[in-house]
């Protein structure tokens, strides 16, 4: 089932794109050490950030739990490992993404389980992210404006 055009129009604000452009997204490089990723995550209070290679291609995601699991064992936390291990060695390579010509249904389905999804081009270059927050802003807009803009009537029940 497709999302109706009128709902889509309210969900996606015409003045702004759903996609937060790559240059506005905090990312780490695949060759950065874990200490760099940890600083970014804690300083900017992110839960997870995209990992890019030297050519700005999407490689994976790195998160605080991944970093902590990497430097911990049953008895201790080995903080010295933060400066020794590269992000690419431990990042999550299984990440949600859509291509630039995405369908809104795909975005909504993936955002059910993720705070954001990455947007890539056909060659894997990172183009930005779409956040659950942006979709919720649109949902809020629908909840407040739909009946102000459109006349809504219930359809009669179909009986067989």
Describe the structure.
The chain is built from six helices and seven strands. It is an alpha/beta fold. The protein has one domain: CBS-domain, CATH 3.10.580.10. Strands 1-7-6-5 form a four-stranded mixed beta sheet. The chain has a three-stranded mixed beta sheet with strand order 2-3-4. The protein is elongated. This is CBS domain-containing protein.
- Whole-number radius of gyration? 20 Å
> Helical proportion?
25-40%
Give the overall pLDDT as a whole number. 90
The CATH class turns out to be Alpha Beta
CATH A-level architecture: Roll
Bin the strand percentage: 15-25%
CATH topology name, in short, is: CBS-domain
Can you write the helix and strand succession as a string? Answer: HEEHEEHHEHEEH
Keywords: Repeat
Protein name: CBS domain-containing protein
Organism: Alkalibacterium gilvum
Domain CBS: 87-137
Structure characteristics:
single chain; 160 residues; alpha/beta; CBS-domain; 4-stranded mixed beta sheet; 3-stranded mixed beta sheet; 6 helices; 34% helix; elongated
List the topology elements:
Layout: H1 5-11, E1 19-21, E2 28-29, H2 34-43, E3 48-52, E4 58-63, H3 64-71, H4 87-90, E5 97-99, H5 104-111, E6 116-120, E7 126-131, H6 132-149
Parallel strand pairs: 2-3, 5-6
Antiparallel strand pairs: 1-7, 3-4, 6-7
């Amino acid at each position: 089932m497709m999302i109706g055009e009128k709902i889509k129009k309210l969900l996606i604000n015409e003045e702004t794109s759903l996609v937060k452009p790559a240059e506005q997204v905090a990312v780490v490089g695949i060759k950065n050490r874990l200490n760099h990723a940890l600083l970014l995550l804690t300083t900017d209070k992110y839960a997870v950030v995209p990992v890019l290679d030297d050519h700005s291609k999407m490689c994976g995601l790195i998160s605080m739990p991944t970093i902590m699991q990497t430097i911990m064992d049953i008895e201790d936390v080995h903080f010295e490992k933060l400066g020794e291990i590269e992000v690419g060695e431990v990042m999550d390579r299984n990440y949600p993404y859509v291509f630039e010509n995405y369908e809104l249904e795909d975005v909504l389905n993936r955002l059910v389980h993720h705070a954001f999804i990455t947007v890539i081009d056909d060659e894997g270059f990172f183009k930005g992210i779409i956040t659950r927050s942006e979709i919720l802003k649109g949902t809020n807009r629908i909840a407040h404006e739909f009946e102000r803009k459109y006349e809504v009537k219930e359809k009669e029940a179909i009986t067989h």
